[in-house]
Amino acid sequence: AMVKRNAHGKASGRKSFNRKQFGSKTGDSSKESVNTKSTASTNPFRKVKGDKKPGFYRDKSKIKLLKLYNSKPNHDKMREKPADPARIEPDRKWFGNTRSIDQRKLETLRDEVKKDNKIKGNTYTVLLNQKKLPMSLLSDPTTNAKMNILEVEPFQETFGPKAKRKKPKLHAYSLAELSKSCVEKQENYSEEKDKDLSKYDILKKENRDPRLDAGQSKRIWDELYKVIDASDVLIQVIDARDPMGTRARNIETHLKKNCPQKHLIFVMNKCDLIPTSLTSKWIKVLSKEAPTLAFRASVSNPFGKGALIQLLRQFDNLHKEKKNISIGFIGYPNVGKSSIINTLKKKSVCKVAPIPGETKVWQYITLTKRIYLIDCPGVVYDDGDSDSEKVAKGVIRAEKLIEPEQYIDHLLEKSKKENFEKAYDVQGWNSGPHFLHMLAQRFGKLKKGGEPNVNAVAKMVINDWQRGKINYYSQPPEIEEEDEEEMNEIEGVTQNLQELEDQPDIIQLEEQVAQYKTQS
Q1: Rounded CA gap, 367 and 387, in Å?
Q2: Of 160, 266, 293, 407, which has fewest CB within 10 angstroms of its CB?
Q3: pTM, whole model, 2 decimals?
Q4: DSSP 3-state assignment of 268?
């Protein structure tokens, strides 16, 4: 064979090919010759020296890849333009993951969803396998509000050579009309409806107790929205003594508008502090909006625990496609969110106290392998309540109030006189200050010179009010016959409230234990 040589006499244009190293081109590949004598780095069959493992050197595929890097790319071929137009071969996988549904089936599905929402409400209707349903098509586009601009102003009259310049819309086109409107506004003005006065009421802000804004800080609201985002099911804990006052309306509207996939449950805690007949009425009223449970938080003697766990397991079955579900507890301070979690776990896993604001941050608690509980600090919702109503709801600690005696009159109005007489064994008062003076004499809360310590007595009354020693409860709204028929159609959570009457009262047991200790 002819071999070209360069000026130095070396062969160029051809490379020697070692058949012993890479094997023969013909014949069986299993019988190819293996060169184990060469110790070059390009020989995949070289022997391993020393204590080195067999995988220390490069293998055959790695050597082949490195040899490809030594060859230079053909830039002329890369710059060539294709003569024929490029065509991508279609594949059926492009259309495999599309969501399609017949128009008739879509209409029937819309009608069924509307019917269920009208009868039972969104909380009782759960769409299964939402990933396989066209969720964007379930809302009827014809019912959505739309602004038809062409109906208000035609295109030819607004743009183009035939456009008409319209007169600007003003409240008054003359001085007489302007003066007339000013006189009408001045006659119809009311200071109570003027919201701007409260913004510039400097004296009111200076004299107001800043501790009354507890539970409204940005940090607390951030903790709440963390719990909402991380939860699949939200349990709103409300006080059975004042269910409507301890509800969070703005959070409920937020969930319906922005988080329709999250489930909402009402748990009416402290139901042992009100009559059983009143508990059943409140359950009927609240079950119209969401599944409602009566509950009594106690590690040793609970009520409603089995019904709540059964309901959580039902939600777990609805979300089988997830690895686990999270249950978030939200509500006002001192309604018993942490106590309910301790009741479900049968032990103290969350720090609890009969005072508001004990829980500072959110925390995860494992109930089962698939169900996790999230405890949230209490949040106060600014619904326009007065300071006295906030104190009555148990939002602020009594020890932090500067002048607690000014809220006693509101507590005396909310509850019957017999309840205070039974709790303190004091009779014959005429007003709030007179009541505090008699209590100071009764319990020996006196200063120097025999002057009654009104501040200490008022804090004692507010503490007893928040802990349930003084009985009080709000009446449910009157139910009409049509609404009662709709409520009877709702199949809510079944509970035997008769068991609640048979259980002993915790407050009475505590009083008996205290009397026994004093006697002994």
Answers
A1: 38
A2: 160
A3: 0.64
A4: strand
> Which amino acid is residue 483, in one-letter code?
D
What whole-number distance in Å separates Cα of residue 133 and Cα of residue 144?
A: 20
Q: 23: phi > 0 → left, psi -120 to 50 → alpha, else beta; which?
A: left
User: How distant, in Å, are the alpha carbons of 165, 170, 257 from that of 157?
Assistant: 9, 21, 39
| Contact status, residue 370 vs residue 318, Cβ threshold 8 Å | no
The length of the chain in residues reads 520
pLDDT by residue (tens digit) across 317-374?
888 888 889 999 999 888 888 999 999 988 888 888 777 878 888 888 899 899 999 9
DSSP class of residue 518 equals H
Q: Which among 336, 382, 46, 44 has a CA at the least distance from the CA of 213?
A: 382
Q: Give per-residue pLDDT as tens, 5-51.
A: 555 555 554 444 444 444 444 444 444 567 777 878 888 887 777 77
Residue 11, judged by CB atoms within 10 A of its CB (0-12, 13-18, 19+), counts as exposed
Question: In angstroms, how far apart are the furthest CA atoms of the chain?
Answer: 132
Query: Can you tell me which residue has the tokens 């739309």?
Result: 146
Pairwise CA distance, residues 464 & 472, whole Å: 12
Q: Can you tell me whether residue 183 is helix, strand or coil?
A: helix
Closest CA to 294 of 438, 305, 488: 305
Type of residue found at 259: C
Separation of alpha carbons 242 and 197, rounded Å: 31
Dihedral of CA 155/156/158/159: which sign? positive
